[in-house]
Amino acid sequence: MAGVEPSWVVLDAMGVIYQPGDDVQQLLIPYLRAHACPLDDDEIRALYVECSLGKLPSNELWRRAGVDGVCSDEDYCRSHRLNEGVVDFGREMAARGVGIACQSNDVSEWSRILRRRFGLDELVSEWVISGDEGVRKPSRDIYRALLGRLGCAAGDVVFVDDSEANLDAAAVEGMRTVLFAERRRGSLRHPSASSAADLRALFAG
Hints:
Helices cover 42% and strands 15% of the residues. By secondary structure, it is an alpha/beta fold. The strands form 2 sheets. The chain has a 6-stranded parallel sheet. Strands 2-3 form a two-stranded antiparallel sheet.
């Protein structure tokens, strides 16, 4: 990434800004199990996808999962945590005049709760969330929505995600890409970073 400074760095939410990366498997399913949800894992995943496409509100997810009145958005979102150092990296890039955006497959209500909880609206200028857009990565439409929102050429964007499929789609649109993942998951197609320090090194110079 050294060389031409990007106009924007776009960070994925789950797995880049927040931990864990697979929030459905590692957070949502255990949370629902702890509250006696009768659905199996595949049913929970399908329900989540519907919600993350904006097809139903989060309170309907709790109702269909059989836990309304027991589970809530605020309570569930307490389990998420920031990925160490990534927000500081974003602040450093913003101080260099680079815009910070987030594009994420996420439930609209949960996205708003988390960014309010961690004060991220002060850092992230644009949020492109699947629950708001009605389309999920790696669909081409959500990348085009992102570029339309940013108002710049694709080559002026660096897209950071923990999914190679999402990065492949971003690269097709012309964006520069970085895989943010454990070192053992390095990519042959995208520059890789396994920590905020690695990200800083990629953007040094």
